[in-house]
Design a protein that fits this description.
CATH superfamily: Aldolase class I
Mean pLDDT: 96
Number of strands: 8
Strand order of the largest sheet: 1-2-3-4-5-6-7-8
Structural class: alpha/beta
Number of helices: 12
Number of domains: 1
CATH class: Alpha Beta
Distance between the termini: 26 Å
CATH architecture: Alpha-Beta Barrel
Oligomer: single chain
Bound molecules: glyceraldehyde-3-phosphate
């Protein structure tokens, strides 16, 4: 099965709702001007919660060929959970995606594998596609344990999912040491772990599921390295942080297929 590549721009805690509208307008205009083919790459933005309504209104009102989603969600349905935002709230805003288990949530908010699993299930229950983030820190990489460490995170995040649910998940492999550092993993590093993730999916849920799941790479992706990364057989897109805030960079990343051939 051909997997449509996905480029998701994680804005993290950047841009007010006014700035968000400006960025989405310029991004849509640039992609349209360059005749972006959305059949060759799906483009998605993941703004902070406070921007989502404005982004939704713009994208849906102007029928822009952009998807949008959120950066986190509550594991709870509703009630006394101050500060949380529920899956139902996101679904009502037509969020198509939500990241779960980003390393910044794991590090700064002590999110563990059980919570990531609960959030993954909560997203799926509301028909929002979870982008499940996994990846090792520098110490694990230096010890050469990146594959087993990352696979353990994938196993925990997908624990209890049916094959049908697993098939609709997106997984983002983001080595923590490569996030926001300018230290991009080599294409071979990315392929090693993404290929192992696909192998695990085949073992746990069957070859058909493994073939359908999109696996992204994230960590200092830029227009000058995206083509090499996307050239790897088990990399189906990128989760882009810093470069997603720069129109020219992100639109070039989204149009990786139009960049000069690798090698
Ligand atoms: O979610 C995105 C990742 O954390 C990558 O961020 P970055 O592209 O700024 O390294």
């Amino acid at each position: 099965m051909a997997r449509t590549p996905l480029m998701a721009g994680n804005w993290k805690m950047n841009l007010t709702h006014v700035e968000a509208v400006g960025l989405v307008q310029k991004l849509a205009w640039t992609l349209s001007d360059k005749k972006h083919d959305s059949g060759r790459c799906e483009v998605v933005v993941l703004p902070p919660f406070t921007d989502i309504r404005s982004v939704q209104t713009l994208i849906e009102g102007d029928r822009l060929e952009l998807g949008f989603g959120a950066q986190d969600l509550s594991p709870h349905d509703k009630g006394a959970y101050t500060g949380d935002v529920s899956a139902e709230m996101l679904a009502k805003l037509n969020c198509r995606y939500v990241t779960v288990g980003h390393s910044e949530r794991r590090t700064y908010h002590a999110e563990d594998d059980a919570l990531v699993n609960a959030k993954t299930k909560q997203a799926l229950a509301h028909r929002i596609t979870p982008i499940v983030c996994v990846g090792e820190g520098l110490d694990v990489r230096q010890a050469g344990n990146q594959v087993e460490y990352t696979l353990a995170q994938v196993r925990a995040a997908l624990d209890g999912l049916s094959a049908e649910q697993a098939a609709s998940v997106v997984i983002a492999y983001e080595p923590v040491w490569a996030i926001g550092t300018g230290e991009v993993a080599t294409p071979a590093d990315a392929q090693e772990v993404c290929g192992a993730i696909r192998g695990l999916l085949a073992e746990a849920f069957g070859a058909d599921v493994a073939d359908r799941v999109r696996i992204l790479y994230g960590g200092s992706v830029k227009s000058n390295n995206v083509a090499q990364i996307m050239d790897q057989p088990d990399v189906d897109g990128c989760l882009v942080g810093g470069a997603s805030l720069q129109i020219d960079e992100f639109s070039a990343i989204a149009r990786f297929y139009a960049l000069p051939a690798v090698g």
